[in-house]
Amino acid sequence: MRFDGIYTPVIAPHDAAGGIDRDAFVAMVDFLIEEGVHGIIVGGSTGEYYAQSLEERAELARLAQESIAGRVPLIVGTGAIRLPDSIAMAETAAEVGADAILIGSPPYTVPTERENALNALAIERAANLPVMLYNYPGRMGVEMGEEFLDRVGRSRNFVAIKESSGDINRVHLLARDYPHISMACGMDDQALEFFAWGARSWVAGGANFLPAEHIALWRACAVEGDFAKGRRIMSALLPLMRLLEQGGKFIQTIKHGVDMRGMRAGPPRPPLRPLNKDDKRALEQVVRVLRRTVAEIEAERARPAEQTRDEQKRPEQKKKDVA
Questions:
Q1: In a domain, 201, yes or no
Q2: Which residues pair with 103 in a beta bridge?
Q3: Rg (the chain; Cα; Å)
Q4: What is the pLDDT of residue 315?
Q5: Mean pLDDT in the chain?
Q6: What is the pLDDT of residue 322?
Q7: Are 207 and 6 within 8 A, CB to CB?
Q8: What is the pTM of this model?
Q9: What average pLDDT score do residues 221-229 get?
């Protein structure tokens, strides 16, 4: 499997009582596919897997696959502290017909690189599906270092890594020394840098409510190779990225963004709480400006080349008219 494009770690909508809103979940999946995202990830941290039972996680994986109906790839998250729980999710992924699994380090346990690699290999064997690794030392407590990558890289199923360390040197390492493991952007405020170093995919939580704008940056950089345009789009996105990556309220912000688009997100599960009024206003202002700016940049792309040339000639024509 080749990861290419925007892969959205879909939220888990909740009703007022905190239960999973299945109709809203199906609507989210349909919305994302209609907007053009290239894949759906269920059971990631954006989907609040850590606050769900294994039964709920398995149900969402099945519901996602039924809703997707082959339109885009499905990736199922296997994250858990206990290896048997991760294996259970890997087996569920294979059972429902998922296209790949997401494997992170077990949080809190702080395994050695060898222990972490053996853990990942056990999960991979349970599914025998393509694997996207998830390196997020800020939450998991350990890094998927070179010893880890060398060990798991012996299996052809380990085809990609979502890099969320925030360390740009990791991007350099992966691009130069591990080109057989494709790099996916997992740090939103570094998306431009990832694409400059050859990343072909972006696991973007913000794409839950701004899929078109995330696709615009991916297309400009990864498809068109137009990094001048990419810098303009990234500049428009950066205020949102700062809210997501530096505000400490990642899931709450994304859920309010979904509500802003007219869909049902519901509250996050405890211990998280919804955004306060000030945070909501800040997000709403950022999104208004962002959408307008990216739309203007994209409108330039859609403008016929002849019209652009005519506009460039107008100043010269005006000079002749004055003369």
A1: yes
A2: 133
A3: 21
A4: 54
A5: 94
A6: 44
A7: yes
A8: 0.92
A9: 97
Which is more confident, 11 or 313?
11
How many distinct helices (H) and strands (E) make up the chain?
13, 8
Residues with a known catalytic role? 134, 162
* Nearest residue to 189 via CA among 202, 198, 174, 176: 202
pLDDT beyond 60 at 309 = no
Phi, psi (5° rounding) for residue 103? -120, 120
Q: Strand, coil or helix: what is 249?
A: coil
Place of tokens 């428009």: 236
15 in Cβ contact with 48 (< 8 Å): no
Smallest Cα–Cα separation from 204: which of 223, 225, 189, 182?
A: 189
Would you say 6 and 214 are in contact if contact means Cβ atoms under 8 Å apart?
yes
Write out the E strands in 172-241. 182-185, 201-203
Using CA atoms, how far apart are residues 15 and 28, in angstroms rounded to an integer? Answer: 14
Alpha helices in 97-226 (DSSP H): 113-127, 137-140, 146-152, 168-177, 191-196, 211-218
Residue 291's pLDDT band (boundaries 50, 70, 90)?
A: very high
Q: Is residue 323 part of a domain?
A: no
* Residue 245 binned pLDDT confidence (cut-offs 50, 70, 90): confident
Encode pLDDT of 111-168 as tens digits: 999 999 999 999 999 999 999 999 999 999 999 999 999 999 999 999 999 999 999 9
3-class DSSP state of 158 = strand
Backbone φ, ψ for residue 280 (5° rounding): -65, -45
Domain limits at 229? Answer: 5-304
Tokens for 296? 């203007």
Report the CATH number that the domain containing residue 290 is assigned in CATH: 3.20.20.70
CA angle 198, 200, 206 (to 5 degrees): 120
Residue 317 within a domain? no
Q: Is residue 200 part of a domain?
A: yes
Structure tokens at 261: 């688009």
Distance, in Å, from the CA atom of 303 to the CA atom of 42, rounded to the nearest integer, reads: 37
DSSP string over 280-297: HHHHHHHHHHHHHHHHHH
Tally of structural domains, the chain: 1
**Nearest alpha carbon to residue 50 among 139, 126, 141, 161:** 139
